[in-house]
């Protein structure tokens, strides 16, 4: 046997060494495959694979770069025993599509990288052919004593690298899919919560009974920007002669604004049912908002609030405050349109020189049957058209002069149609509420 080996150019020791090498390589592959069976995080997997490569192939320096990230930017997932891996070196490595020695003078060479090995789908049957769209790269250093061993090891290192890359890439996409599913479920849960909150808010606003008084004809319109919002309006019969009504707007949008809105709605009803005078009611609301928002001026509320009292000869007296709210309009018999501008700053914020609400007297006006009061929130006048131009107060005032429908409902529909024609295809920008109260 020894003579036959000698004639073939092999010594017994060399044959044993080659067999041991093949066995070590096979065992290395088996160890890597065993690692890939359970679900292992990328860092733990790479640490274990690096340990196998050190023990089986003598790889002393190893780094692993991949691009299966959400933005496909190269990421250094692991490195061992290199002084450092610079961003320039990472960018250089991702340019390689064949297993190669780094170019002379490159950052990779300067850092001690001996082999750059792209990992992906090979075009041909050998390790020296081009890799189609490599998604990862081994950076290797100090891993073989001879060129012959290095050439032999490269094939196995590429096989191991491809196995690791396929596993990690699949794990990444599975994680992305899992996160997408979780996000979808969270979005569905959020939408269900918003839908429930929207139904609750509609019930709150619909409790503003348009038939609260036989001599008041009331029509309302409400459209939230995000399912729920911070607009509020209501009508409260205080006694046989007096009816309180208001239209307000909580700053912000969505659930936070809706929470403040529902809190205020309940407090106003309670104070109105107790017969609180308007100055007291406004002062209580302001104090409550300061408690809700704290000292950081996190929000505010604009509010038009008034009390309609039946007067002599079938008329009405209106006592009102306007706390920073867009001006409602009083529609007179004569066709005149009167704006009711703000009389106080908005509620819920502290302003130097702010008046004491308790010490103030409401504005008083006389109204007659057939006249109407139109109030709204700023979502109406601030809504832009497709060209980015807001509707504005002046346009609403001009439109009110041109229409005189017979009923409150028809009147409000005419205003709504005017707003929708202006909005056209532009997106809704804010919550919008409109209230029209016509005296009989």
Strand-helix topology:
Elements: H1 2-7, H2 12-36, H3 42-57, E1 61-66, E2 75-80, H4 87-93, H5 107-110, E3 115-122, E4 131-141, H6 147-206, E5 216-223, E6 231-237, E7 242-250, H7 254-273, H8 278-293, E8 301-310, E9 316-323, E10 329-331, E11 337-339, E12 363-367, E13 372-376, H9 378-382, H10 393-402, H11 408-423, E14 432-439
Helix pairs in contact: 2-3, 2-6, 3-6, 6-7, 7-8
Average per-residue pLDDT, rounded, comes to 81
Assembly state (oligomeric): single chain
Strands ordered across the widest β-sheet = 5-14-13-10-11
Task: Please give the largest β-sheet.
Answer: 5 strands, antiparallel
Distance between the termini: 122 Å
Structure, explained:
This protein is α+β, with helices and mostly antiparallel strands. The chain folds into 2 domains: 2-174, Beta-Lactamase; 207-439, Phosphatase 2c, domain 1, CATH 3.60.40.10. Helices cover 42% and strands 22% of the residues. It has 11 helices and 14 strands. It has helices at 2-7, 12-36, 42-57, 87-93, 107-110, 147-206, 254-273, 278-293, 378-382, 393-402, 408-423; strands at 61-66, 75-80, 115-122, 131-141, 216-223, 231-237, 242-250, 301-310, 316-323, 329-331, 337-339, 363-367, 372-376, 432-439. The strands form 3 sheets. Strands 5-14-13-10-11 form a 5-stranded antiparallel beta sheet. A 5-stranded antiparallel beta sheet has the order 6-7-8-9-12, with helices on one face. Helix 6 runs parallel beside helix 7 and helix 7 packs antiparallel against helix 8 (278-293). The radius of gyration is 39 Å and the shape is elongated.
């Amino acid at each position: 046997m020894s003579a036959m080996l000698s004639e073939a150019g092999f010594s017994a020791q060399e044959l044993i060494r080659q067999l041991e090498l093949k066995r070590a390589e096979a065992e290395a592959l088996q160890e890597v495959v065993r690692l890939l069976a359970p679900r292992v995080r990328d860092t733990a997997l790479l640490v274990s694979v690096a340990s196998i490569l050190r023990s089986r192939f003598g790889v002393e320096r190893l780094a692993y770069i991949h691009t299966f990230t959400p933005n496909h930017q190269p990421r250094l997932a692991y490195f061992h025993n290199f002084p450092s891996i610079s961003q320039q070196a990472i960018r250089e490595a991702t340019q390689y599509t064949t297993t190669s020695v780094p170019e002379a003078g490159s950052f990779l060479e300067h850092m001690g990288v001996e082999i750059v090995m792209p990992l992906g789908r090979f075009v041909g049957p050998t390790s020296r052919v081009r890799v189609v769209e490599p998604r990862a790269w081994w950076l290797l250093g100090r891993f073989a004593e001879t060129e012959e061993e290095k050439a032999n090891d490269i094939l196995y290192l590429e096989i191991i690298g491809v196995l690791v890359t396929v596993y990690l890439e699949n794990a990444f996409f599975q994680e992305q899919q899992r996160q997408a599913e979780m996000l979808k479920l969270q979005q569905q849960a959020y939408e269900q919560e918003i839908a429930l909150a929207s139904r609750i808010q509609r019930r709150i606003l619909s409790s503003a009974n348009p038939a609260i008084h036989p001599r008041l004809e009331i029509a309302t319109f409400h459209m939230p920007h995000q399912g729920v919002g911070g607009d509020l309006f209501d009508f409260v019969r205080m006694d046989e002669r007096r009816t309180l009504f208001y239209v307000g707007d909580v700053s912000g949008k969505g659930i936070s604004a809706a929470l403040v809105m529902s809190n205020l709605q309940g407090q106003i009803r309670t104070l109105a049912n107790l017969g609180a005078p308007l100055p007291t009611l406004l002062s209580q609301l302001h104090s409550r908002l300061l408690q809700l928002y704290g000292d950081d001026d996190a929000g505010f509320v604009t509010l038009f609030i008034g009390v309609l009292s039946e007067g002599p000869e079938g008329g009405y007296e209106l006592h009102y405050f306007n706390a920073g709210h867009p001006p409602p309009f009083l529609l007179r018999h004569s066709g005149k349109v009167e704006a009711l501008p703000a009389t106080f700053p908005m509620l819920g914020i502290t302003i130097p020189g702010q008046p004491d609400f308790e010490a103030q007297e409401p504005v008083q006006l006389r109204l007659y049957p057939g006249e109407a009061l139109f109030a709204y929130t700023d979502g109406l006048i601030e809504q832009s058209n497709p060209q980015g131009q807001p509707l504005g107060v002046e346009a609403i005032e001009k439109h009110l002069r041109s229409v005189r429908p017979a009923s409150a409902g028809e009147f409000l529909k005419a205003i709504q149609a005017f707003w929708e024609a202006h909005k056209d295809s532009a997106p809704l920008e804010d919550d919008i509420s409109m209230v029209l109260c016509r005296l009989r």
